[in-house]
Amino acid sequence: MHDRVSGRPSTHAALAFYDDQQPPAGDFLADVLDGFSRTPKQLTPVYFYDAKGSAIFDEITALPEYYVTRTELGILDQIGSELAALAGPGAVVIEPGSGSSVKIRKLLDALSVPAAYVGLDISGEHLESACQEIAADYPNLQVGAICADFTEGLDLKHLTLESGRRIIFFPGSTIGNFEPEGARALLSGFRKAMRPGDAVLIGADRVKDADRLVAAYDDKAGVTARFNLNLIDRINDELGGTIDASALRHKAIWNAEKARIEMHLIAIRDLHFTVSGHEFQLREGESIHTENSHKFTPESFTSLAKSVGFDVLQTWSDPADLFTLHWLEPAAKA
Ligand SMILES: C[S@@+](CC[C@H](N)C(=O)[O-])C[C@H]1O[C@@H](n2cnc3c(N)ncnc32)[C@H](O)[C@@H]1O
């Protein structure tokens, strides 16, 4: 048996297709060297999600302080019949950044006879096993997987997909990891892959009390700290780094001006280290900025969506106004 897209021998028997668009893994070193050469030093969050990072992220979603996943799942439970009505029967659901593909089950269960599900993630191993689990649990659904970088747009042209309405499912407030310019570029990329009648169902975390936000990203059990420090382990293991991780402390900061939580690794003493032979210094108190998580109001999110040609047809929130889900459709041309 052969893989329907690549033609190589398939190890993906349970999937309708596995499309490896070969995201350039080799950029890890270039991105780390570039980020460590900046002031302040920074790392890009895309590298959080190796197999270990993905497993730690799954732990984060169950933490008492991390309201995001629980709240979004609760909203999905409440709005199932509305989603079924908006999507109609025979929908094709595409999930960029699908990860463990947990939330998708709520959506698939809510929809009226969905035709297909396509998980898309940069982390190939995790993607394949998660999509195979969906295929096993939903035998009437066509399930495929695309290993790709969603910031490069969604390339669906050559896939043998069902012809139903396409719903791009982008939960978890992953949109918040992008600076405003990057968020616009990402949504524009989705917009370009859409046909009239298609839609985006997207999660956005809300601006709220700073203490609650900081606690969600700096939990008592130290799981988010492990997640953050896993980036340093990856650099040491995969790029021959010599960074003493015990000299770095995880810190979450609410930046009110930019409406975002920032994650940092702060040096508790002066550090000198190398990465693939390149030398770097960190002074005591200096930070490596590892992630941004922008927060939205319904108004600020609507303005972002409109700026790239979407209409916001529906917005749902939880009773405590912690999180929102939005249903976007390409705006009718004037
Ligand atoms: C925070 S998890 C979200 C998982 C799931 N959608 C949820 O809401 O629970 C983010 C996922 O996006 C993936 N990811 C991050 N950046 C990506 C990119 N540029 N292209 C494709 N996948 C990406 C990661 O590998 C990870 O599995």
Description:
- The protein is an alpha/beta fold and 334 residues long.
- It has a domain at 44-56 and 209-294.
- It is 33% helix and 25% strand.
- It contains ten helices and 14 strands.
- The chain has helices at residues 27-36, 51-61, 67-78, 80-87, 103-110, 124-137, 180-192, 210-217, 223-238, 298-307, and strands spanning 17-20, 41-42, 92-96, 116-121, 142-147, 166-170, 199-205, 248-255, 260-267, 271-275, 278-282, 287-294, 310-317, 323-330.
- It has an eight-stranded mixed sheet with strand order 1-5-4-3-6-7-14-13, sandwiched between helices. Strands 2-12-9-8 form a four-stranded mixed sheet.
- A hairpin with a 5-residue loop joins strand 13 (310-317) and strand 14 (323-330).
- Helix 2 runs antiparallel to helix 9, helix 3 (67-78) packs parallel to helix 5 and helix 4 (80-87) crosses helix 5.
- It is globular, with a radius of gyration of 20 Å.
- S-adenosylmethionine binds next to helix 2.
